[in-house]
Amino acid sequence: MLLINTPNNISFSLVFSKHKFPVSTNQTPPQLSQPSASSTKKKLALISFSKYLRNTQLQFISTNEKMVNFMMDKYIVPTFFVSLLGFLLLYILRPRFRTPYYKKKDPKSIQKCETHNVISSNLTNGECKLEKGSDADIIIVGAGVAGAALAHTLAKEGRKVLVLERDLTEPDRIVGELLQPGGYLKLIELGLEDCVEDIDAQRVVGYALFKDGKSTNVSYPLENFHSDVAGRSFHNGRFIQKMREKAATLPNVRLEQGTVTSLIEENGSVKGVQYKTKAGQELKAHAPLTVVCDGCFSNLRRSLCNPKVDIPSCFVGLVLELENDQLPYPNHGHVILADPSPILFYPISSTEIRCLVDVPGQKLPSLANGDMANYLKTMVAPQVPPELHDAFITAIDKGHIRTMPNRSMPAAPYPTPGALLLGDSFNMRHPLTGGGMTVALSDIAVLRNLLKPLNDLNDADELCKYLESFYTLRKPVASTINTLAGALYKVFCASSDQARKEMREACFDYLSLGGTCSTGPVALLSGLNPSPLSLVLHFFAVAIYGVGRLLVPFPSPKRLWIGARLISAASGIIFPIIKAEGVRQMFFPTTIPAYHRAPPVNKGSDEAKK
After folding, report:
1. Cα 572 from Cα 41, distance rounded (Å)
2. Of 49, 164, 175, 255, which residue is 20 to 30 A from 539 by alpha carbon distance?
3. Max intra-chain CA distance, the chain
4. Residues 419, 140: contact at Cβ < 8 Å?
């Protein structure tokens, strides 16, 4: 408020806005005439002053417009960029808020699906429509150990199954030949134990370890199980063919040879597959659930998981023929802690022994120019037990040398409605411990129990919930075997580091102690006690035992330093593997919401116990 007193003692009260604006000093208020009794003079004075007010108001408006224009010129550019950045931020974040968890995928995989693997589901000539009330409930891609076992298991539950396998002839592999006792129990639970009969499979009851001329043997803790329960070793191809034949005997299983080229997706859900028959014909098959288990070379997993494949080493495979030679420890797997990495021997028939020589890295000596044969004779043969030395040299001279990269890949799925990964296409570990088939068969038992309550697989929401819980329920068994395989391989490899050398020596001596020190780790390795906590306790018990060996009889500063480095090396081996597997899923699976969506698990392996 502004109070103006005119020279004629007439007061006016003017009210302005709360903003202060400068008033021009060049303009002075008009002089009002002297007061008079005449009302006309007062009116003239008021008119004169109103003109003054109008001119002042125009001055205020002009000044205000100049300030607004100044403010707009100063902030218009940064305001534009801030708005643009805000719009981009909202655009980027929008899918995260609006996409359900089970539909999240890696952007690369989404792009790949949209451009390559997504196929229209419209019916065309040659398409096989497999939906509710039609030919099949489930499509299984691959008929290896996992695919054939899954087909038989789900068909026994009343599901109609279509199995697509690239090659139905007998496989010839150098791995997948040793089934641990835990895996054999799963065979019994799934009703497939007769698949190891009539293939000259050999019983395996434990392991023998060799190091620097010393040896020890550790047996599986089978006292509480039926006498038939033990490990089994065999030709991988014979075992797979038996499982395929058993699955094909069921009327609701259709086994067909064909190469699956892509998944069919609709609105984020997998509806089936496109495949090429043996004759080269392109066909499509639809079903509510597609299980991809096409092995370590899978070309379909990229849209269903985040494959981080590591190749720490390669296996060089030989077959030793036994005539008068015998294994140092019959019915045992043999592990030689050689330099630079382990060598394995185990029977695969009554007259054959498989030898697997681990070679670190991905670069192997050449087979063509004889470098590989020379490497085996000069570097490996001197470390082979005397009982097997001559048969080893003979196998090299015959030239039947096979190689295979050893892959490791932690499970990192994208939960996708209508699809599931299984077997080596989903999760791999170093084959040193022979745990791959045990993990696959355990996963099949979990999946069977999950799907039992679902009569209608076309209910996408319910199916997705159960498939999501599968990834949590499988973790304790799978992560224990995976972690043990990775940790043991690193411990068993030779190293120039003194702490790693002590860890390797401590592991051999710890297993040689017998009692709990041997049965505990072997129960973990065999799949009989897949306990993550027990694994960690035994692993660090080995490390502490190694430190104790260093401190006896006198704890010198050098020995104390090596002991501290040994504990550090043990932590550096096991903790990264546990982190990759998932700490929460591995040790605290009940804290995962998906864990509680599953029905109670029927422990069918109990029937194998006495």
Report:
1. 103
2. 175
3. 148
4. no
Position 407 pLDDT exceeds 60: yes
Question: In angstroms, how far is the first alpha carbon of the chain from the final one?
Answer: 102
Alpha-helix residue ranges (DSSP H) falling in 99-119: 107-112
DSSP 428: B
3-state secondary structure of 216: strand
- Non-local (6+) Cβ contacts of 297 within 8 A are none
Residue 609's Cβ-side half-sphere holds a number of Cα atoms within 13 Å equal to 7
Partners of 289 in the beta sheet? 138
Q: Residue 286: beta bridge partners?
A: 272
Helix crossing, 436-451 with 145-156: angle to 10°? Answer: 20
Q: Sign of the C-alpha dihedral, residues 597, 138, 297, 337?
A: positive
Helices (H), 266-412: 371-375, 386-398
Q: How far is CA 48 from CA 33, 54, 236, in A?
A: 10, 10, 113
CA dihedral (436, 442, 443, 448) in degrees, to 10, reads 150
SS3 for 4?
strand
Check: CB of residue 505 under 8 Å from CB of residue 459: no
Residue indicated by tokens 């692993």: 539
Please tell me the distance from the alpha carbon of residue 478 to that of residue 444, in angstroms, as a whole number.
12
Model confidence at 45, pLDDT cuts 50, 70, 90, reads low
Coil vs helix vs strand at 366: coil
Please check the confidence at residue 172 and state whether its pLDDT lies above 80.
yes
H helix intervals, 208-362: 236-248
E-only strand ranges, 181-300: 202-204, 206-211, 214-219, 231-233, 253-266, 269-277, 282-286, 289-292
The whole-model pTM stands at 0.76
Q: Which amino acid is at 462?
A: E
**pLDDT (tens digit per residue) in 213-226:** 999 999 999 999 99
How many C-beta atoms surround the C-beta of residue 109 within 10 A? 19
Average pLDDT of every residue of the chain? 81
What does residue 57 show for φ and ψ, rounded to 5 degrees?
Answer: -65, -40
Cα–Cα distance for residue pair 579/547, rounded to 1 Å: 25
The token duo for 243 is: 């499982």
Residue linked to tokens 């108001």: 57
Q: Is 185 exposed, middle or buried (0-12, 13-18, 19+ CB in 10 A)?
A: buried
Q: pLDDT tens digits for 313-329?
A: 999 999 999 876 578 99
